[in-house]
Amino acid sequence: MSFGSMIEKIVAKSNPTVVGLDPTLEMIPRFILDSSLEKHGKGLEAAAEAVLSFNKALIDALYDIVPAVKPQCAYYEMLGWPGVKALKETIDYAKSKDLFVIIDGKRNDIGTTMQAYANAHLGYSDIFGESISAFGGDALTVNGYLGTDGIKPLLTICDEEDKGIFVLCKTSNKSSGELQDKLIDGQSVYSHMGDLCRQWGEDTSSNYGYSAVGAVVGATYPEQLEELRRQLPNTYFLVPGYGAQGGKAQGIAAAFDSNGLGAIVNSSRAIMCAYKNKGFDEKDFALAAREEALRMRDELLAYIAKPQLK
Amino acid sequence: MSFGSMIEKIVAKSNPTVVGLDPTLEMIPRFILDSSLEKHGKGLEAAAEAVLSFNKALIDALYDIVPAVKPQCAYYEMLGWPGVKALKETIDYAKSKDLFVIIDGKRNDIGTTMQAYANAHLGYSDIFGESISAFGGDALTVNGYLGTDGIKPLLTICDEEDKGIFVLCKTSNKSSGELQDKLIDGQSVYSHMGDLCRQWGEDTSSNYGYSAVGAVVGATYPEQLEELRRQLPNTYFLVPGYGAQGGKAQGIAAAFDSNGLGAIVNSSRAIMCAYKNKGFDEKDFALAAREEALRMRDELLAYIAKPQLK
Fold first, then answer.
1. pLDDT average, residue stretch B177-190
2. Are A44 and B134 within 8 A, CB to CB?
3. Cβ separation of A117 and B77 shorter than 8 Å?
């Protein structure tokens, strides 16, 4: 099934974007923090509940206009197990609103350990004979440095269910070139990783022309985006680095195919903190987030074809 | 401070090994599972408590003879937030027994996100003005595919406290060469990553000759171990792949310096499941684990110098 349901949601909402849910306490309006502190006192539980309330309100304000959310594990792990519980509850809530959930964990390991990550984030664990979904994401970001042994355990789940992975290829950050731009027999490391993504994807069924193995390609490197799009016609791209990191809509357009598909563009802070950036009252943080999400959608759609199924 | 306390524990116990705590329910003796089921019924809480009981009993049997433990995050995440709570409690228990704790998470990201991982696993998070340690590990495994932006956020914590990181260089699995063995201007990707480890380590203070930035180098590739040891005289190696994956003590010896330092060798399943492999009654699982840990220590010490401070 691969990325089928993600693509269908992108088309239905005519919006190829994903909202990153990367919450820190500094981002959360005071009234939410106060309410959580009153209930739990200080500590990780209070922080985790504030994060969950913030996320739910954002999801309520966005679910009818965006196809997907992308919680970033690091911000939940920072709050210990109560934070990880809030991650699970955020995922459950997003899925109850029919959003596609990309868990941004950049996980990587081999063999039975990678199988454990696959079960944890996308699949099911056999717990005393019961099949339990620990996190229940629809897609997971992964790091391919360990090669096929680190990817194969994910492919069965991707192929049997409506799941996908995004493998880091060319990341959006300044130092990404230290390894990724280096040349192996004249081919960059990121392009070599792209070839591996294509090969891994060939072991999955494709949906609307795309395999279950996507690639992470940063908006901050439009030339490489264009190059990788040509190289990998069946690979869906997750594109971070739009906005805050400097990626422009015009440059990102190269990541899309002629049907307005092929890429999903992430924005995190610009949406979560829109109320701060745009001078809204903090009570209106969700409204501000919605306004920024619509602005981003319209900006992208000015440069790409309206998403449609082939 | 870097790896100072780890090195001191290795010397004090004359044992350069680390016990991987990678528990699955299949590994846990029936009487522990039954006791947990009786208390919690089925579900993730029961599974997580069984894992914690198993880990604690293993730690009790091992803490006076081994310097360190290495819980692998995937197996805890597979049990959802109750599993992640068991991870934290395992770490707390190991530290109460004065063990050095390497969190095997292979985390990777950039900027504030990587800072969140650093705070979560090695440092502290500011939660409503309180400084809280979410997991409290002493070292973390990381993946350097994103370059310096993904490592720098960790270095302040490593340098100010007694913490370290191990960056994946040449991993123990069969497919590690798909990227890692490729040549960049005649130098392998793993050796290039080794150079980056050395550079990153130069930004940290060294302790007993070793920086805070270690490297993961698999026991299954003894030639590369030897090559990297020559290339990186100030980089501590975490060596997986001993035993079950085929790494031999003789080959691993090349990872050590003439003082019996420079490497810490991991064993997970061979120790955790020793009671199954060696025909012990399941009640004696901890005794069997201790016997295997001693056997492994003695096997390694036959090939390397007795660990001592320079």
1. 97
2. yes
3. yes
pTM over 0.95: yes
Residue A307 included in any domain: no
Q: Would you call B175 and A146 a contact, using CB atoms and an 8 Å cutoff?
A: yes
**Residue B131's domain spans which residues?**
4-301
Which one of B144, B149, B168 has the shortest CB-CB distance to A173? B149
Residue B48: its pLDDT value, please?
Answer: 98
Written as six digits, the tokens of B183 are 């040549």
Tokens of A114: 């990678």
Do A50 and B128 touch, CB atoms closer than 8 A? Answer: no
User: What are the pLDDT digits (tens) for B255-299?
Assistant: 999 999 999 999 999 999 999 999 999 999 999 999 999 999 999
Rounded to a whole number of angstroms, the distance from the CA of B57 to the nearest CA of chain A is 21
**How far A284 CA lies from chain B's nearest CA (Å)?**
23
Q: Do B143 and A145 touch (CB under 8 A)?
A: yes
Q: What is the DSSP string of A93-127?
A: HHHHTT-EEEEEEEE---HHHHHHHHHHHTS-EEE
Q: Which residues of B touch A109 (CB under 8 A)?
A: 72, 74, 106
Residue (of B15, B6, B212, B202) closest to B95 by Cα position:
B6
Mutate to test the interface with B, among A103, A178, A187 (most CBs of B within 10 A): A178
Q: Locate tokens 């920024």: which residue?
A: A292
Q: Indicate yes or no: CB of B182 within 8 angstroms of CB of A184.
A: yes
* Contact across the interface for A184 and B180, Cβ inside 8 Å: no
Which residue among A87, A176, A179 places its CB closest to the CB of B193? Answer: A179
Number of domains into which chain B is organized: 1
A309 within some domain? no
Q: Return the SS3 of A222.
A: helix
**So what's the pLDDT on residue A165?**
98
Q: Which of A106, A152, A248, A276 is catalytic?
A: A106
Confidence of residue A243 (pLDDT cuts 50, 70, 90): confident
Q: What is the DSSP string of chain B?
A: -TTHHHHHHHHHHT--EEEEE---GGGS-HHHHHHHHHHH-SSHHHHHHHHHHHHHHHHHHHTTT-SEEEEBHHHHHTTHHHHHHHHHHHHHHHHHTT-EEEEEEEE---HHHHHHHHHHHTS-EEETTEEE-SS--SEEEE--TT-GGGTHHHHHHHHHTT-EEEEEEE-SSGGGHHHHT-EETTEEHHHHHHHHHHHHHHTS--BTTB-SEEEEE-TT-HHHHHHHHHH-TT--EEE--BGGG-B-HHHHGGGS-TTS-SEEEEE-HHHHTHHHHTT--GGGHHHHHHHHHHHHHHHHHTTSPPP---
- Within a domain: residue A308? no
In this structure, is residue B310 part of a structural domain? no
Please check the confidence at residue A1 and state whether its pLDDT lies above 80: no
What is residue A217's three-state secondary structure?
strand
Query: Domain holding A206: CATH number?
Result: 3.20.20.70
| C-alpha span between A67 and A65 (Å, rounded) | 7
Please give the positions of B annotated as active site. 106
Measuring CA to CA, how many Å separate B99 from each of A209, A245, B63, B64, B138? 52, 41, 7, 9, 9
Query: What tens digit of pLDDT does each residue of A33-92 get?
Result: 999 999 999 899 999 999 999 999 999 999 999 999 999 999 999 999 999 999 999 999
